[in-house]
Design a protein that fits this description.
Blueprint lengths: L1 H16 L4 E3 L5 H4 L9 H8 L4 E4 L5 E11 L8 E12 L2 E12 L8
């Protein structure tokens, strides 16, 4: 009877330890990033390309910062750390026109569908 309990606990640990792939937000594609032209692209075009931002911040200057984020995490084995990729793009918009933007990516290990 004790062996059945130990086997049940081990099965539970293996089941919990092998998690699914987690995705939040839409991936920020390099081809779409290249469509941003500082001083020309409008806020409406940015929303048309990527949809509504995850967050809109009002800046002290009166401009707005649109924040787009993406996160993907993959669990391969219960005994290893997960692979992940976190993308963040911030677009500064003043008077309806893109003034500047930045793109950051943070990864651990390799995510196969990653672009530059």
């Amino acid at each position: 009877m004790r062996y059945i309990g130990v086997i049940a606990i081990l099965l539970l640990v293996f089941t919990i330890g092998c998690g699914p792939t987690i995705m939040e937000g839409k991936r920020i594609d390099a081809a779409k990033r290249s469509q941003i032209i500082k001083g020309q692209t409008t806020a409406a075009e940015v929303v048309g390309i990527w949809g509504q931002p995850a967050k809109i911040e009002k800046l002290p200057s009166g401009a707005e910062k649109y924040v787009y984020q993406s996160y993907k995490e993959e669990f391969t084995h219960w005994w290893t750390l997960p692979k992940y990729e976190r993308q963040k793009m911030e677009v500064i918009i003043d008077k309806g026109i893109v003034q500047d933007y930045s793109y950051q990516v943070d990864t651990q290990d390799v995510i196969t569908d990653k672009d530059e």
